[in-house]
Amino acid sequence: MIDTILMHEPAIRLGVFTGVLAAMALWEIAAPRRPQRYSRRQRWPHNLMIVALDTLAVRLVFPLAAVGAALLAAEHGWGLFNTLASPGWLAILVSFVALDMAIYFQHRLFHAVPWFWRLHRMHHADLEFDVTTGLRFHPLEILISMVIKLAAVMALGAPMLAVLIFEVVLNATSMFNHGNVHLPAWLDRHLRRFVVTPEMHRVHHSIIPRETDSNFGFNLPWWDHLFGTYRAQPAAGHLDMTIGLEAFRDARALRLDRLLIQPFLDPSRHESDKTPRA
């Protein structure tokens, strides 16, 4: 079974990625939540090229990635679930939830540590909020994130299947919760009990720092409630809130070359971006 999954892993990842991306793009056209000032033509080619660079970087530096780390840990008996006798389904479920909590704290770390924030702010500097924003991360951030994820996988002794499910679901929910899509209020109210919705995560992309430093969850919403970082709505409302960062308002900053060098630019003229995130 493991050999079969490994053989089809690239196809599984690519199939889910393209399917969710296409579905969200069509949903954004059919039922957008907010009017957009900057067109897809201005933003999407650059955001999608970042995805290609991120994928290439991970494959070059970590050829086996997180799934390989899970197999290595199992082979050597490393990690919690490789030393405990527990049902397979329980190991998968607990590993999924634990990895999601690790990603929540990683996200907070990238806001709190100034140099990590320099990398992560590229994600926040998008001047619109849509499905491709959920894919837009600096390659150096992706590599650091992968190191943290590998450590979590090996410490847990997470089953390979749990890691694959987690990564596929996380990628899909990141596209979903960054979608510029309309959800009925009653549906959003029920959904956000179990998954981070676009209405919940959009608050995190507000230009107001106290809103930027809230709603850190990407997949499960429970950590924000549990650790006091949940904010239900933006102060200005979803239609009137400003997306992005004060330091990067020029449309030229949406270009691929500017995205790649952004961590090395000095935004010191803006006090809000000098302040470490909390």
UniProtKB/TrEMBL annotation:
One of its GO terms (molecular function) is iron ion binding. Its main location: membrane. It is found in: Membrane. Pfam families: FA_hydroxylase. Residues 93-229 form the Fatty acid hydroxylase domain. This is Sterol desaturase family protein. Coiled coil: none annotated. Signal peptide: none annotated. The keyword Transmembrane helix applies. One of its GO terms (biological process) is lipid biosynthetic process. It comes from Halomonas eurihalina. The keyword Transmembrane helix applies. It comes from the Bacteria. Keywords: Membrane, Transmembrane, Transmembrane helix. InterPro entries: Fatty_acid_hydroxylase (IPR006694), Sterol_Desaturase_Related (IPR050307). The chain crosses the membrane at residues 12-30, 51-74, 86-105, 142-166. GO terms for cellular component: membrane. PANTHER family: STEROL DESATURASE.
